[in-house]
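Entry for 6-O-phosphono-beta-D-glucopyranose complex. Fields follow.
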Amino acid sequence: RKELKAFPEGFLWSASTSAYQVEGAWNEDGRGPIAIDLKEDMPEGTSDFKDGVDHYHRFKEDIALMAEMGFRAYRFSIAWSRIIPDGDGDINQAAIDHYHEVIDELRKHNIEPIVTMFHFDTPAALEAKGGWAQRETADAFVRFSEILFKEYGEKVNYWLTINEQNMMILHGPTIGVFPADTTEQQLNQYNHNMFVAQAKTMAMLHEMHPQAKIGPAPNIAYVYPASSKPEDVIAADNYNAVRNWLYLDLAVRGEYNSLAWSIMEEKGTTPEIADGDMEILKSAKPDFIAFNYYNTATVADAPFGGGASERSEAADQQISEGEEGIYKAVSNPNLGMTEFGWEIDPVGMRMTYRAIWDRYHLPLIVTENGLGAFDKLTDDGRVHDDYRIDYLRQHLEQTQEAISDGVDVLGYSPWSAIDLISTHQGIAKRYGFIYVDRDEFDLKTLDRYRKDSFFWYQELIKTNKLPA
Ligand code: BG6
């Protein structure tokens, strides 16, 4: 291609965080615990989430740094267990006020809030009553959403329902979002209950605030067949169905992906569907699709008796291992890896954009993409994270390719605005533009420092094009 199209005017340059990973203040001002706070088996040497990076107290300082970078938007999540400490009971006014302050602070700096309503943080009290297995939890989520829309609906134009529902269902027991012994049948029921809750929430926002927009936020990964062998291509199709399209077909079209459904049927793990559910699912229409992209997946045919995975243990944990008769995960020899064993595939991001666009024709917002690395604060008070700049540049080049291919992309919100606690690898795995001075178990000063990527992103936003 000779010339790429420019990033559109008004492109939402942003970055992301989630409440339980960034806020800290886990038991302050009435916040109720979430299931992950109470997890007793954090991987060895890894911080828990209780202190985060103290964004709860320092949000004004953090938002000022985001404004200095030029952010047009900031994606964050509102903690359900702050607003309703036990998930379905009394409303905590202190929390309502807190998020008004956060949103007002953003607006003061002309930063558009992009609010995630649920980012892995089921209130512990609901979890104790059976969590997402219960329809009551879905109802409690819908009530929580209604409170958010009433309070903030006039000030927030972009809403995300559930972050990475697919990763929760595929990996929730591993990352501590759900109990380790949750069965597949139970997970499929959680999944269904979440879909119903999401659909009700989308329809409700449209009714209450027609100007506002809402969409799902799954993690989508293009799936390659390991070879041109037809059986490998079938395996890729299978994995695409259960990992990607099951989620978007339900959110956008309100129907179960027939291949994913037939795989569940064969395993005898289909969820129970109550009367009226399918009508509810059909009634909701998202305005855009938000998706998180870190890497692609490569899979091969998995005949019975042949084992389910050929990936090394270090391989990306966002890719499921596979299942005999359906697909098996393999490594892609054409790709490099991060220090944490995640494959890096910028061109795969272009394909992911195309695949989603082709299938649904809805505008897209990238709500996560980024590089987890062992950053080092140097004596000059900087982090020389040229590796992160390279990573982001390559993914943004491919974003521009996708835009030039004809895909409608509204914004880019990488992970993460500021360092925070990773899902299961502590603070050592950093993603931010802003470095936070703390270690795994020593909170140190919690001071903020601008990384080299901070200045690079600032330049990019200012000129609306990739720095030379
Ligand atoms: C996504 C999540 O899965 O990836 C984030 O939405 C998470 O919450 C991010 O932090 C990076 O994953 P990890 O495991 O490196 O923290």
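NOTE: Residues 18, 21, 163-164, 167, 219, 292, 368, 372, 415, 422-425, 429 surround 6-O-phosphono-beta-D-glucopyranose (CB under 6 Å).
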